[in-house]
Amino acid sequence: MTESIQTPTPSSGNARAIGLVHPVDLVVTLIILSGVSYLFYETTTFAEVAPMFAQNIQPSMYPQILLIIIGTLAVFLPFEHILLTRKGKDIDKERRDGIPRLTLFTMAFLIAIVAAAETLGILLTMIAISLIMPRLWGQKKIVPILMFATVFPVLVVLLFSKVLSVYFDPGLFGVAL
Questions:
Q1: Would you tell me how many other CB atoms lie within 10 Å of the CB of residue 17?
Q2: Tens digits of per-residue pLDDT, 27-48?
Q3: Domain match, 133 and 79 both
Q4: d(CA 156, CA 135)
């Protein structure tokens, strides 16, 4: 699984930084900021909750905080090459190798599991991710994976559903805690 798929990546000649900004990272930053902007707009369409039930936080606040953090971190991407160059590292070296197959498999799996999440429900989705991702990344020991895949999702769902009173849709199979 260490094979790489050769994708058109910039060569060292055209990927070098122009002044303070790295052009490839600038494009990635603009894509991330576009996604963050769209998702932030979507959070403004969330229904307001009555103050009695909001517990000092509206439904849109938590995702908006996360989106602001992601956007803020993304703004630094075009300038990352400056720090790496000072450390003697070439930011474009690994980019010449192409995208590893493992990355593509991980993306495909996550897209599929997110698409199936409504049907599976939160608990089964988390268990599936916890079972499959370690195996996908090369973990061979099945006992730790099984322990992690059963204990972690159950604890997370119990924390959010029982302690924090967050409702999770059980999905079509009706599996919930």
A1: 19
A2: 999 999 999 999 999 988 877 7
A3: no
A4: 21
